[in-house]
């Protein structure tokens, strides 16, 4: 995927952790994200708290940096402009807020520290075979079986519904069963 942008912001530097580039990116696209969030929230909620709009806007940028800038890495300039891409993400985040009355937000001060702690701590518990589960399935399984989270705790930690956690767990268990059944048949 192509990740080139206009000359005002270097997306590669943002992804690689350059603070000046990231600040330039935020300054450049904050109005776009804010407008997308505001439009959705105002169309769905009668009395809008301006602080909610700012919080949801901040959450959009948190989503952009989560999982090692996963959403920014997926941006493809040949498919749409950065403004369009960010507007879609902003609207999706705002709709989540409107639908569920909450959003997956954490204090920015804790965000970096939590990533370092998770990266340094090995997961105790079962080892899952490599290449069998998707990254999302692996994350859910580790939360449920290695960190001993219940479904609601895992849902809160990932900012998704409990039913989604149950579905992902079911899919992961099905894949693991198929994997181990194939091993038994092969031997």
From TrEMBL:
Pfam families: Sigma70_r2, Sigma70_r4. GO terms for molecular function: DNA binding; sigma factor activity. One of its GO terms (biological process) is DNA-templated transcription initiation. Residues 26-99, 132-177 form the RNA polymerase sigma-70 region domain. Keywords: DNA-binding, Sigma factor, Transcription, Transcription regulation. InterPro entries: RNA_pol_sigma-70-like, RNA_pol_sigma70_r2, RNA_pol_sigma70_r4, RNA_pol_sigma_r2, RNA_pol_sigma_r3/r4-like, WH-like_DNA-bd_sf. It comes from the Bacteria. Belongs to the sigma-70 factor family. ECF subfamily. This is RNA polymerase, sigma-24 subunit, ECF subfamily. It comes from Desulfovibrio ferrophilus.
């Amino acid at each position: 995927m192509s990740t080139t942008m206009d000359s005002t912001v270097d997306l590669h530097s943002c992804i690689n952790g350059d603070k000046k580039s990231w600040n330039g990116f935020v300054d450049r696209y904050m109005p776009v994200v804010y407008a997308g969030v505001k439009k959705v929230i105002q169309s769905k909620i009668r009395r809008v708290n301006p602080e909610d709009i700012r919080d949801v806007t901040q959450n959009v940028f948190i989503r952009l940096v989560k999982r090692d800038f996963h959403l920014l890495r997926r941006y493809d300039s040949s498919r749409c402009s950065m403004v369009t891409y960010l507007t879609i993400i902003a609207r999706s985040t705002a709709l989540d807020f409107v639908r569920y009355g909450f959003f997956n937000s954490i204090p920015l001060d804790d965000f970096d520290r939590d990533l370092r702690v998770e990266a340094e701590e090995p997961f105790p518990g079962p080892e899952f075979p490599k290449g069998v589960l998707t990254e999302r399935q692996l994350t859910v399984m580790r939360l449920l079986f290695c960190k001993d989270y219940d479904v609601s705790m895992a849902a809160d930690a990932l900012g998704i519904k409990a039913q989604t956690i149950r579905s992902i767990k079911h899919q992961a268990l099905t894949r693991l069963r198929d994997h181990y059944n194939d091993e038994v048949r092969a031997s």
